[in-house]
Amino acid sequence: MKSKLLLIVLSLCTSFAFAQSYDVSGTVVDGSGLSLPGVNVKVKSSSQSTTTDFDGSFKLTGVPKGASIIFSYIGYRTQEIAVSGTKMTVKMADDAKSLEEVVVIGYGTQKKREITGAVSVVDSKTLDILKPARIEQALQGTVSGVNVTTQSGAPGAGLDIRIRGIATNGQNSPTAIIDGYVGDFSLLNPNDIETITVLKDAQAAIYGTIGANGIILVTTKMGKKNSKTKVSFNSYAGFQETSRKLPTLNATEYALLLNESYANGGKALPYPNVSGLGKGTNWQDEVFQKGAPIINNDLTISGGSENITYSISGSHLDQEGIVGGDKSGYLRNTARIGLGADLSSKIRLKTNVIYTYFTRRTLNENGLGSVLFNALNVPATLSPYNADGSFTLVPNTTGLGNEIINPLAQIENSYNDYNYKKINGNFGLDYKIFKGFTLASAIGFNTSNSESKTFNPQISYGGKVFDVQRSSVTQGAVNDNNYSFDLYGTYTTKIAEAHNITGTVGTTIFKEWGNGLTATGFDVPNNSWQFADISLTKGISETLTNSSYNYDQRRLSYYARLQYDYKEKYLLSGMTRRDASTKFGPGNKIGYFSSVTGGWIVSKEEFFGEPKFINFLKLRASYGTLGNDQIPNYGYLGLLNGEATYVFDGAIVNGSSTGQVPNPDLKWEEAKKFDVGLDMKILNDKVYIVADYFNDVRKDLLVPNIPVSGINGTGAPGASAPTLNAGSVKNSGFEFAIDYKDKFSDSFNFSVSYNVTLLKNVVQEVNNGTGFIEGGAFGVGQPAPSRMEVGKPIGYFYGYKTDGIFQNQAEIDAHPSQLALGANAAPGDLRYVDVNGDGKIDTNDKTNIGDPIPSATMGFNIQMNYKNVDFAMYTFASVGNDMVRNYERTLSDANRLNYVLDRWTGEGSTNSTPRVTTGATANNVFSDYFVEDASYLRIQNIQLGYSLNPNVAQKAGLTKLRLYVGVNNLYTFTKYRGFDPGASFGPGNRDNVSQSPIGAGIDYGFYPIPRTYLMGLNLNF
């Protein structure tokens, strides 16, 4: 009887247990009610999981009552819902601005609400809209405090990134960390990137000696656990055209103006009869290509199981230049594989390997004699071709100089090729030793090889400086490598449910090495690119025709960080790093870099009350020290890399000599960074505000070529003065960003964002013996126009101030003499200001006449979706930056822009543009007449897209089908006369990589950024 009773009880219990589990099914939709395929659906604390199908539907069997199901999907807030029945509908909330999202901060992650530093994030959604050919372009106007300037609009040209100003006359670019290792993110495929995180303040101190210019953390896309294989194909094609042409004089205008110039100079008229000249040749029309194509395709396959995630991708970009046709172009192919695997419950493997190959062809640009410089200065009266089809020669006369040549002939005779191959990536293991403690290790590596070839055919342009008497070919090969090994442990714990502590301790080993070789051969067979190879050349040269180099640099680092918060309300973080580098002398190899950051989430305080208008408010501050070691290798040593010739047995022999004078006391630059800011959400989380005040003082600037006694041999060929720590620069300013996002209905949502950065740059110290450093070039034979000097912004323009035009001789007689500038003034000439009041105009009257650094930059961006239609517009503005107009050759017979038609022709005619004459004047000395306000507002991107209804797309086996059209660089509003007010290209630094800001902002005829019309599609299946 007892046994029967026990059986009945067990049966009832079993029935009750079965009654408390369900076969759960449901649908997952987005905020608009559209089904979401591919959502991860997992039973909490269980291995049971699935993903939603094309209809957003899912089904789980045997789920216990009360168990929680976790729904997660990229771009949406993860939700956890308790099971209470057999059917459920889940609406996923957009997570774009969620304070719970995790942000990469270097050697770890942190919730956005808990971050105490100045950190900004650009996600993959923004990259999808902007469609940048290079990733740096996506930071312009989207992140406050970051300014991106183009070195050129040519395909594949570099971009300069400046975070919170320019702090040094050396390398100013931030360091990029790709998935944990140092890399070059400009070569990545934009569609491979999940997020870009910018560390702008002392938060970057965890990176020590490479963090002074800021840190950019790039996280590439990975597959998701328990998700089906997802295939994503993105493609766009378009054509490019110049965004601007300059209004030069046509043939008739040119001839009339030239006649006037010769008449004013007392010479015979060069064009006695101007009838029949018409408009002549517009050389810009001849040089610029219409409809230059650009094509991009990329394919990504990703997915994952319970233990393995994967992402495999490949991309192809082919871009032709708007100048030069096939003589200017860029082709890039990339392949990437990312893999994550749980080897056990405690060990996880992660790896990411990227292969990049690109080729690039270029033209002469950014200097006197460049292609666009010639297109602006060749007279419109000349034809491009002679009757026999050969190129017209530009006369070699005094009025046209010896560097202005036919730009079409210049393009035709430009031959160069550059090929680059790179493989980089990392391999890492995470080991959960015990609860709360994880040990992570990773090896990152970069290895690249490049080959270059430049052919100079034997050619005559009619006695110009570009004439080549002997054909030659120069070939080069470069091999660069580096690797890093990181080992760090992270311990996370909670004490008494109120004290949250995270500690990180680690070490990094970094090594960089490489070599390069260049050689030149003369007398290329058949004077042809087809035979341009050193192996085929037989010519002998009396000068050295080859060179080589190699380098080896290492760094050993130890670092630690402690993060603490009390009830997620009071936040504190401290970090320190010790770096030892072989770049510096024996007494300065080791540096220490520390910082502290803190935050207070005011909205969690009891006195704050129930959130109403303000939903979230956090105050934060940071202060710390960072370093910059971006100098050439062996900068503290004296090397035999100078040029020398010796006489042996009565013959001249090439040899080597000492190069840079050594400085064993050389050490890294030191940056003291202070930041105070707030993060705030208002109006039911619809408005997100971030504001920061920052103060960055860079000390011990690495200043090259400090004057020393000539007894050291610094005047010898190839030799140079030493590099010293001899300067200080301060950048201070204010950042403000506001985002508004709202959903007005299930069919319509809208977002708008605005950010502005106000910046002041001041040089505090220059200890090089003269008190200033010069740089840049203007005209021919004139003193350097740019300076770095105490009390002024770095790279400011140094020249004469003008005060209108002399209208008559009486004004000249009443004004201090200008003879010291090269000629007596005459009516119609520029009137210069006697700045020091000594009664004469001379070099002592030179002063600050312009600043290439903008005082404010800002971005204004709009996105909206209505049903299946989406629209986006991104804009950027720069205010207060000046540019030097140096693309006009100051020769009497060179062509000019049409503003000279308003020149002075008699008393009262104008007070802004001087007369034209072939006589001697001082009008062409460097003055503010050649400095223009280059402030601008640019519509960077407009895109309109249409997504096919998912219910229709799934019938074709697709989860997404989107078509779009767009325009990049639609229009630039500016008063600047040149091609591009946003371009900046300074003289090269000794590292042969970076450009100095001392001499930037001088326009030799910048290659304009093309306007690009795109049509594309996004496919997911």
Automatic annotation (TrEMBL):
Keyword Transport: yes
Coiled coil ranges: none
GO CC entries: cell outer membrane
Alphabetized Gene3D superfamilies for the sequence: Carboxypeptidase-like, regulatory domain, TonB-dependent receptor, beta-barrel domain, TonB-dependent receptor, plug domain
Gene Ontology molecular function, alphabetical: siderophore uptake transmembrane transporter activity
InterPro entries the UniProt entry points to: Beta-barrel_TonB (IPR000531), Beta-barrel_TonB_sf (IPR036942), CarboxyPept-like_regulatory (IPR008969), Plug_dom (IPR012910), Plug_dom_sf (IPR037066), TonB-dep_OMP_SusC/RagA (IPR023996), TonB-dep_OMP_SusC/RagA_CS (IPR023997), TonB-dep_rcpt-like (IPR039426)
Bilayer disposition of the protein: Multi-pass membrane protein
Main location per the UniProt record: membrane
Pfam families (alphabetical): CarbopepD_reg_2, Plug, TonB_dep_Rec_b-barrel
Biological process per Gene Ontology, one example term: siderophore transmembrane transport
Alphabetic keyword roster: Cell outer membrane, Membrane, Receptor, Signal, TonB box, Transmembrane, Transmembrane beta strand, Transport
Subcellular location: Cell outer membrane
Signal peptide range: 1-19
Family, as annotated: Belongs to the TonB-dependent receptor family.
NCBIfam families, sorted: OMP_RagA_SusC, SusC_RagA_signa
UniProt-recorded name of the protein: SusC/RagA family TonB-linked outer membrane protein
Source organism of the structure: Flavobacterium resistens
